[in-house]
């Protein structure tokens, strides 16, 4: 763990503060100020004035026109009234912050005050239009470009926010004072670290860059902008320069353990979304909106806490973000994502080095050993502009069904070498040249669709979303939204119909729950599928046997299972599936009555018997397939993908499975003296 300089500690200890209690119930605070601003924060006129920040801890915006400031608490003539000429400019939003410039009116703005602050120490007062004291303080000697503020916002605890040895200025004008950053995350953890239950969940790392520990008990984190308080932290303290990891696995009730491991009530979207860290429902500490992520590759700040973000082929949960020695390889892109036999595959990557010589090589293997392709930054190699650090290389078109492994090797004259992914040939990227492509692709009208079922009565599709608030959606076979059943469920991960199409079955992943609803979405009943306590990876698909009415569900990963139950929840059979480490959707073939199971990590559609015996597999060109169903005939199959929110329509023109011809040991002689001569 890094440490701050001695100056940092001395300044913190020597902080001096005398507070005058607030006399009203207003939730407006003098929250932070700088009394000697040299270069830390520019003002509206590109100057560097002193400044005072007001924090609104209330639930409603407050227009501060008519309010008063002063640097003298006893002289009424020193009070300066804020203009209300431009009310929007002087309104502090609920949970928000507003900065005023103590520059003695040297610039023309409604945010300017008619006094400056003394770096040697003085007073600051803040009054409402009735001249009732809202907040005031007397402060001691200040340091240039160092702010003094409440920690956390609106509290009675004050501290200096001094220069961080890596991040630089830590003043936060117009923002929360809480010294936390979303520092690193993985949104698709297939083979990375595991939680205490052995599950590979998504995760977020927080970093406390401040000089003091931060108690985050009761603060919030969310992946929904309209619900920032979705997950509330258990009692937790992050030490100075410390890191905290939170598993984002959609745990509904995060039980406190000793030692406590935090599990948030949402999952991260690998296709991109927003992460929020909040002090209150209205006060955001930090946030990040990110794009599509790659399995087992983290995205984080480098250096820690700064505004620069990089992809890390070697994630560093609970530790400082580090870059492995050698050239830095980021922003690796493969196009097309699912190549056909006529497609060349273009690989681009941003590669940089501090050395003078750099060589970048694309290495691919389609079965006959690795072939080297020089990657160039010349503007002629599908790399965009020349000399922009983006290198391009090309893998030639391959036959249908070809499996291609590939990685990037970057070397400089240090000398040092970097592989991407980090393990190089021992764990390369891979793709398969598809021999089965959809006849149509449609944009789904909902985010994160995660189940799919065809209704033969209405000739429409039903799907669900897998968010913390899940509902059911009826769509046409071209993905047009027809109806929404508002059920307010939790993390739906599969949907199916009863034999008579009068009952909808859905599964709640993290709760291991099967829920039964009528055709209008009204609750009929539910049952829990037996599972190990605390197991975070849960149910991922459901289908109904058209012959028996039995319920078949999937346990997602870590030895995925096929579980057969009665409609009352009585378990009849449980089989461990051995064809993939992950399963994500299930349905019955309408004629053969075998099961078809999709694996999003395996990019495969798999045919199995009702007892779980694997029969055969098809490669499917879908990224994060989450649901599968046959359509109006046995020759049409639909699949839905979480990432990108797509509906895929495939022709399914395959013959029934035929087992291989049996080969039997028919006769033998174990002691041949003279009965049968050899060759």
Description:
The chain is an all-beta fold and 679 residues long. It has four domains: 6-161, Immunoglobulin-like, CATH 2.60.40.1260; 183-312, Lamin Tail domain (Immunoglobulin-like, Sandwich), CATH 2.60.40.1260; 328-432, Immunoglobulin-like (Sandwich); 440-651, TolB, C-terminal domain (Neuraminidase), CATH 2.120.10.30. The relative contact order is 0.08. Residues 1-25 have low confidence and may be disordered.
Tags for this entry?
679 residues; mainly beta; Immunoglobulin-like; 4 domains; six-stranded mixed sheet; five-stranded antiparallel sheet; 1 helix; 41% strand; globular; disordered N terminus
Portion of residues within helices: under 10%
Largest sheet: 6 strands, mixed
> What is the arithmetic mean of pLDDT?
90
What structural class do helix, strand and pairing data support?
A: mainly beta
What is the number of E strands?
Answer: 52
CATH class of the largest domain: Mainly Beta
As a percent range, the share of strand residues is: 35-45%
State the oligomer. single chain
- Gap from first CA to last CA: 75 Å
* Strands ordered across the widest β-sheet: 20-19-14-13-23-24
CATH architecture of the largest domain: 6 Propeller
The CATH topology of the largest domain is what? Neuraminidase
- CATH level-4 homologous superfamily of the largest domain: TolB, C-terminal domain
Rg estimate, integer Å: 31 Å
User: What general outline do the C-alpha atoms trace?
Assistant: globular
Q: What is the domain total for the residues?
A: 4
Discrete helix count: 1
Query: Which stretches of 5+ consecutive residues score pLDDT under 50?
Result: 1-25
